[in-house]
Structure formats: C-alpha cells, structure tokens
Amino acid sequence: MKIALACDHGAFEYKEIVKEMLTEMGHEVEDFGCHSTASVDYPDYAAPAAQSVADGKNDRGIVICGTGIGVSITANKIKGIRCALCNDPVSAKLTREHNDSNVLAMGQRILGVELMKEIVRVWINTDFSNDERHQRRINKLMALEK
Ligand code: RB5
Questions:
Q1: pLDDT at 65
Q2: Which of 47, 75, 77, 113 is within CB 3.0–4.6 Å of 83 for a Cys-Cys bond?
C-alpha cells in the first residue's frame, strides 16, 4: 500500500519509527514531515497528508502528534477522510472493519512505543468488513460532507 505519514514536533520520534516499520512491511511511505523536533503547527503537516489520501495519491494515512487529537481533528476537516484516533489495538481493528477509516491518528505522549507499533500493525492489516450495515452508516456520515 501507499501510505501518507505526518507528524508534528511532539511525535517526530514515533513518525520515524512508523516509517521504518511500514517500509520493512513492504509498504511505500510518503513522508509529509515534520523532519525534526523543532516546534511546528500540526495542521501544516496533517492536512497535506490527509489530502493526498482524499485525492487517491495514497491509499491510507497515519498522522501523529502529542495527543493525536490535533492531527485527527485536522484530518477529519478534509473531505473524504475518515480519521480514527486510536489508543488501543481493538479500536484500530474495529475502526477498519466498521468505519473503513482511511487515516489513523495516534499520540506519542499517550502511547508506549510497543503499543503504538501494535496499533499500526493491526490497523494496516485489517480490511473493511464490507458489511451492508456498516457501509450504510458510512454512506450516511459521508453524506454530511455535502
Ligand atoms: C503540541 O504542543 C501539541 O499541542 C500537539 O502535539 C498535539 O498534542 C495537539 O493536539
């Protein structure tokens, strides 16, 4: 898969870990920054990454900040994006199966590194259920963008 990746200064370390991990898993990563721990504004990085998913240039996106909240709110402002902030692997699995989330948000200040990596693995490897009920609900929520 082609995966857009973005972070702010509060999550530079985890973004680098996720980049290495996804590459090792055989995915193609587009890194939208940031590229150091120097202070930046998360919308400047999360929005272009999410936009690339909405435009079909990347299949999915992963956005990370201190809490995961700022980047998730940002990503969900982009039309076509269903961003899920996940702090556990169960949520990561269910949001793929039920919401067909196309962007994952996480917080470096919230998650230990092994838990964060497990959330990424589960979210990346779980397919949408294709269940008619879930698709109907997604259609309704996407209609709210119009
Ligand atoms: C940056 O200081 C911090 O506000 C950001 O990483 C994030 O937690 C915002 O939601």
A1: 98
A2: 75
